[in-house]
From TrEMBL:
<dbReference type="InterPro" id="IPR009061">
    <property type="entry name" value="DNA-bd_dom_put_sf"/>
</dbReference>
<feature type="domain" description="Helix-turn-helix">
    <location>
        <begin position="43"/>
        <end position="90"/>
    </location>
</feature>
<protein>
    <submittedName>
        <fullName>Helix-turn-helix domain-containing protein</fullName>
    </submittedName>
</protein>
<dbReference type="InterPro" id="IPR041657">
    <property type="entry name" value="HTH_17"/>
</dbReference>
<dbReference type="Pfam" id="PF12728">
    <property type="entry name" value="HTH_17"/>
</dbReference>
Amino acid sequence: MTTENPTLFSHQLITKGDLVEFKNNLIAEIKEIINHNPEPKKWLKSSEVKKLLKISPGTLQNLRVNGTLNYTKIGSIIYYNYNDIQKLLEIN
């Protein structure tokens, strides 16, 4: 004969109110995550700009060459000012 520990088999009732409260808390947390907009970086690398604008490397090069998008080159890395990209998007 074994002796059962009652704490191993204890049950808790979950009410409809508990589920509604859980749902509301979960939705509030998700909204907070979605609405939290961290400040964008001031300078972006080419790969970040391509991803942001959804453009190819050739298109990005054309934007540089024809002067549509200003850039700064430090060593072999090209940087783009985030504000310039925003202005480009507003104009077009």
